[in-house]
Amino acid sequence: MADEQKQDNTTEEQTEPLFQLQKIYLKDASFELPHAPQIFQEDGQVEIKMNIAQQVDQLAEGVHEVMLTVTVTATLDEKTAYLAEVQQAGVFSIVGLDEKTQHAVLNTLCPHTLFPYARRAITDLVADGGFPPLVLQPINFDQIYAQRLQEAQAQQEQAAADMEVQGNA
């Protein structure tokens, strides 16, 4: 009987964790050929550099827009052969997670979901620009997130140590 009462008293409402993709869309795309058509006449090995950035905006309670920006710059003999940039975005519903877990989901699972779409858009832009299709390798967003957390922790520790040194001076 005591067990039954205990069970009845602990039937608090708990929010079931939910991760739902509402929408994926291409927010912006650009492709530049600053040295066309001369760049097509040049020989040599093209050097590719890729940068990735991410932005998270809260649209409503439990609803976020995550935008992944992928920028690819190709150079040939120190001249820009092409510049391709894609802003791939998505609207995600995320509820029932603690703050730390939600932060991790927004910075790992969401960009992981968006990256294949951005990669395809970059590939299409480069091919449509007259170059061989560029296939970007998969990215480990979990590893990037872990590195960022380690860097932030190291900066906090360094700042604390600096403040301690200043306090003792």
Count of helical segments? 4
Number of strands: 4
Distance between the termini: 66 Å
Beta fraction: 35-45%
State the shape: flat
The percent of residues in helical segments reads: 25-40%
Largest sheet geometry? 4 strands, antiparallel
Order of helices and strands: HEEEEHHH
Mean pLDDT: 89
Derived from helix and strand composition plus strand pairing, the structural class reads: alpha+beta
Q: What are the segments in which pLDDT stays under 50 over at least 5 consecutive residues?
A: 5-12
The largest beta-sheet arranges its strands as 1-4-3-2
Task: Calculate Rg over CA atoms.
Answer: 23 Å
What does this structure look like?
With 169 residues, the chain is an alpha+beta fold. 38% of the residues lie in helices and 36% in strands. The protein contains 4 helices and 4 strands, in the order H-E-E-E-E-H-H-H. The protein has a 4-stranded antiparallel β-sheet with strand order 1-4-3-2, with helices on one face. Strand 2 and strand 3 form a beta hairpin. The longest helix is centred in the last third of the chain and has 28 residues. It is flat and about 60 Å long. The N and C termini lie far apart (66 Å). About 5% of the residues have low confidence.
